[in-house]
Amino acid sequence: MKLTILFGGASFEHEISIVSAITLKEKLAGFNLTFIFCDQDHSFYLIDASKMKATTFSRGEYKKMPKLTLSSGTFVQKGLFSKAEHSSTVLNLIHGADGEDGSIAALLDFYSIKYIGPRIDASVFSYDKRYTKWLCNARGVKSLKHEELSLKEHNNIKIPYPIIVKPSRLGSSIGVSIVKEESELDYALDSAFEFDTRVIVEPFLQGVKEYNLAGFGADGKMHFSIVEEPQKNEFLDFEKKYMDFSRSEQVLKADVSKELESKLRTNFEKVYKGMFEGALIRCDFFVVDGEVYLNEINPIPGSMANYLFEDFAQSLELLANSLPHAKRARVNYEYIHSISKAKGK
Amino acid sequence: MKLTILFGGASFEHEISIVSAITLKEKLAGFNLTFIFCDQDHSFYLIDASKMKATTFSRGEYKKMPKLTLSSGTFVQKGLFSKAEHSSTVLNLIHGADGEDGSIAALLDFYSIKYIGPRIDASVFSYDKRYTKWLCNARGVKSLKHEELSLKEHNNIKIPYPIIVKPSRLGSSIGVSIVKEESELDYALDSAFEFDTRVIVEPFLQGVKEYNLAGFGADGKMHFSIVEEPQKNEFLDFEKKYMDFSRSEQVLKADVSKELESKLRTNFEKVYKGMFEGALIRCDFFVVDGEVYLNEINPIPGSMANYLFEDFAQSLELLANSLPHAKRARVNYEYIHSISKAKGK
């Protein structure tokens, strides 16, 4: 199968995206892959597969590679006397800003390029943790209670300690702190506000059971990965998660009852349907007293959560053949014609 | 002031956008205006001001005008031996799809072009009437109860007749019907589902008081238009609204008490703050038993609701000088460098 891996982006998770792309190069060795890099200035570059290593980017060597622009249905590489098109289905692998905030989705939709990844709406509801809560409420999915803080107003937190402080719009644990007592609060808020103007606070549940489940819709039904119980030392810090994005070995299925697995799947589907079509997402859940709570949605999980699927390549191909496509309105100038006619022009 | 009016789009409201742009050409005669047209194939054209009339578009004459592409900070016009840039602040005047669904916002943000109009999140929450209800709930603003219908499930509507049936994602009354009894339901549903796969139903409130209020945030505070009581014959049909978009004469202030005006403003501000910054929007309210209900948000109102402002040109200039700008993450390859170092490479 032909597939274009689009990665990079002007995001705090830029480097993680590079690691994800390198990992997928290995996992999708049977595919005919094209690599397109979006740098922090939003220029696109065609990266030769043999150059897919971290230093190509950190040393700026990518800048010598062919620059691409967007055009209807394709990325275009313009030479002095030539023009090459790169038009295979895109896998949006840009984590964080650009990739997950709806920008890349809008760009690819606007230029009619088929892609695997969340659409604009789905991006907005998963990128900002506040909106994820609104989605949960509307869909009957439980989520932890929370409070929103702004730079101006961040006193009077009512949730008792320990609490967890998070930038509202970042993933990969960037800017996240666990606060056990008030004396630690200011530092945690400073860290969070460094990355976002919007911060949320939730209760920190010591020793809570966590389960991750990935999946996607294709052929009119849901396809789920195995359930994973992520290892944790309090919570994964950024460096740990960074390494985590290069995972490519299939993990072991968590020891969960059929009943719990079914509950996790039901909650996943409530969140996914009518919102995330076209994307392979990972939902991270908490289980408290047998009740399932959605913690967060990763609409472009690190290395596409390949390690949770028994046959990742096959799953991706199935999804690629089931992508939604936006119906575009056609214009017939009916009203202008009828008015011109009425005016006798 | 220099301003680029971006209009057209692949939308059922394409023609309305043309009418809006022609109206603003007249209203903003003191500005240095550039006109950029987005056609239904998503190509951009530079339109000479003297050609800003409906037939330029309905007869396809725009296709002979210079084509533009997007580049960092600007629209670019490429000649054989030349390159001209059109980089003034953009007024996003594309109604409906493209303009109001977040696509144009994402495009302009991605290419770092300053613009007046809703950002991606604000677009998503105003474009789909279901999400507007979620926003209302979260912000403590009342809205009418509703039910969602999908093509597969649209029986068992519990709201008693008369009801109003609307496509979830279109404006300008397209596909909207009032249904007084069950026998009229099928036709109404067919009309709505012709335009959207998502349809909502609300109670139809005969003779309800309606008030429109426009406004925007600038210089750290809200600026409001006068309150208008829109004329109505049941509700405005598309053709009527179409003519409505060419309005340029200031309307009379509705006869509302200071108390009601203040309630409308309070509700407007609850919806606007932390969401619609950068946009001049119009909120349409119902008033039932003295209580204010948000009916819908027009994030790019027809001809920018110019007729509601005492000094429209000045208002727009104030807003143009107060636009939010997205802070872009910078990348320093810290993790890749540290890993390379650890590996001794």
From TrEMBL, chains A, B:
Domain of life assignment: Bacteria
Pathway the protein acts in: Cell wall biogenesis; peptidoglycan biosynthesis
Protein name: D-alanine--D-alanine ligase
Localization (cell): Cytoplasm
SUPFAM superfamilies per UniProt: Glutathione synthetase ATP-binding domain-like, PreATP-grasp domain
InterPro entries per UniProt: ATP-grasp, ATP_grasp_subdomain_1, D-Ala_lig_Van_CS, D_ala_D_ala, Dala_Dala_lig_C, Dala_Dala_lig_N, PreATP-grasp_dom_sf
Enzyme class: ligase
Residue intervals of the ATP-grasp domain: 133-327
Annotated GO MF terms: ATP binding; D-alanine-D-alanine ligase activity; metal ion binding
Cofactor field: Mg(2+); Mn(2+)
Record GO biological process: cell wall organization; peptidoglycan biosynthetic process; regulation of cell shape
EC number: 6.3.2.4
Reaction it catalyzes: 2 D-alanine + ATP = D-alanyl-D-alanine + ADP + phosphate + H(+)
NCBIfam families in the cross-refs: D_ala_D_alaTIGR, PRK01966.1-3
First-listed, main subcellular location of the protein, grouped into a coarse class: cytoplasm
Family stated for the protein in its record: Belongs to the D-alanine--D-alanine ligase family.
